[in-house]
Amino acid sequence: MAIRFSSTGLVVGEDTRFSLPAFVDAILRGVGQVMLMNNAWTGLLFLAGIFLNSALFGAAALLGTAVSTATALLLGADRASIRDGLFGFNGGLVAIALLYFLEPNPLTWGCVVFAAAGSTIVMAAMASLLDTWKVPALTAPFVFTSLCFFLATARFGRLETTNLLPTAGLPQTAAVEGVVTAATVGEGLFNGIAQVFFQGSLLTGIVFAIGLLVGSWRACVAALAGSLVGILVAWGMGAAEPAIRAGAFGFNSVLVAIAFGAVFLAPGRGATFAYALLATIATPVVFAAVSAALEPLGVPALTLPFVLVTWLFLFASQRFLGLSRAAAKDSPH
Amino acid sequence: MAIRFSSTGLVVGEDTRFSLPAFVDAILRGVGQVMLMNNAWTGLLFLAGIFLNSALFGAAALLGTAVSTATALLLGADRASIRDGLFGFNGGLVAIALLYFLEPNPLTWGCVVFAAAGSTIVMAAMASLLDTWKVPALTAPFVFTSLCFFLATARFGRLETTNLLPTAGLPQTAAVEGVVTAATVGEGLFNGIAQVFFQGSLLTGIVFAIGLLVGSWRACVAALAGSLVGILVAWGMGAAEPAIRAGAFGFNSVLVAIAFGAVFLAPGRGATFAYALLATIATPVVFAAVSAALEPLGVPALTLPFVLVTWLFLFASQRFLGLSRAAAKDSPH
Amino acid sequence: MAIRFSSTGLVVGEDTRFSLPAFVDAILRGVGQVMLMNNAWTGLLFLAGIFLNSALFGAAALLGTAVSTATALLLGADRASIRDGLFGFNGGLVAIALLYFLEPNPLTWGCVVFAAAGSTIVMAAMASLLDTWKVPALTAPFVFTSLCFFLATARFGRLETTNLLPTAGLPQTAAVEGVVTAATVGEGLFNGIAQVFFQGSLLTGIVFAIGLLVGSWRACVAALAGSLVGILVAWGMGAAEPAIRAGAFGFNSVLVAIAFGAVFLAPGRGATFAYALLATIATPVVFAAVSAALEPLGVPALTLPFVLVTWLFLFASQRFLGLSRAAAKDSPH
Question: Taking CB atoms and an 8 Å cutoff, what residues of chain B touch C172?
Answer without folding.
Answer: 154, 168
